[in-house]
Amino acid sequence: MGQFDRKAQSEPKHGKPSSSGAYKGPPVMARGIPIHRKGPSYTPKKKPKQTAPSASATPEPLILEHILPLELEKRTLEIFRTTFPASNDFEALKPTLQEIKDALNCQDFETAFGKEEHLEAYTIRWSPSRTLGYAQLLAWVLTQRADDQYVRQLTNSTDHELPTKVVCFGGAAAELMALSGLLRHLRPLEAAGKPDQQEAQISEGLETSSTSTRVSQSPLLRLNILDTADWTSVLSKLEQGLLTPPTLSKYASATVRATNASLLSPGTTEHAFARTDILSLSTEALRTAIGTAPALLTFMSTLNELYATSMPRTTAFLRRLQEAAPKGSLLLVVDSPGAYSEVAVAGTTEGEVKRKYPMNLLLDYALLPKPREVEGGEEEKPEKAWEKVIGEASMLYKLDDALKYPVSLENSRFQVHLFKRI
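Structure tokens predicted for 25S rRNA (Uridine(2843)-N(3))-methyltransferase:
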């Protein structure tokens, strides 16, 4: 859930608002939603003079290529639309969406995600864009790590005795849909739904006693999602959408009916959801959630949120995760560019003061400890548990103009960090 650039279709009706001297950096993010905090005493400053960018300015973002095909993205958006018909009336959703944004602005997550109505509205508004961005990002990551054991297991279409495991710490609809779309792209012969020949034949006045729908003997992908909100209903509805063929017109030809199939075949994926306080998970609980084989562990726009909740608890959690993760596992962290957290530190004469630390610096501190000086002036090198294999400060995924959805779609910006357990 990174910072987003709005597409033209979602710009204000009467054009862009006039520029002011307000802060031009990344907005405060809550669950990936830009939150602009302007109190009643806010006074805009004069617009500063334009200056040429310095050599130390933030580099241009790396543009993600379109690895997953456009038709797969269109199909994904259609599943969101048909699963949640309320998406067709965006105006009716606006009051609920504003309630969610107001609650997130106050970091009141119980109010933001305490109602089924809020969870579905959140999914309708923000999950489709993120799904497409996450899916393309995951596909790119796989191309960068093609020789890793875990990646070979995920992409291998001949040997899948054990399901490939993914554990999402914080997340819901976007993770489920992105990983499902990725699997369909990587393993189409095994993962894709098969046409229901019975329906096609009946439409032509023929009789049949069987269908060609495939039921997998063993899932190709096992997904564990853990979050503080109860996303059970939303996830179940989307899973049903993944396994349901598109609704056809009564005038559809026999050929169209014969090729109509669900995005995924039943039994291809298996997902489990647990509502829990992530930071309270013990090492044993993490081992149970991850398993004994290498897995992909993801923090999609949630790690900075955890740091904002408690920096010491988040650091301790990452250390427990290190103990629980099997060797060969991959840890993927995605967040908004420039994400930072504040921590209170001891001041001089004024007591505690708050300092801001970039999230990636805090992450490296927890996973890649530096040598420390011991008695005698010598350095003690800690045992290396993680290797950082990808570190991108800013990436951008631009949606294809051909994509249509009743609610605004947005390009995705994020920072990306990938670690490998060694």
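Confidence is low (pLDDT under 50) at residues 1-28, 36-44, 50-56, 200-216.
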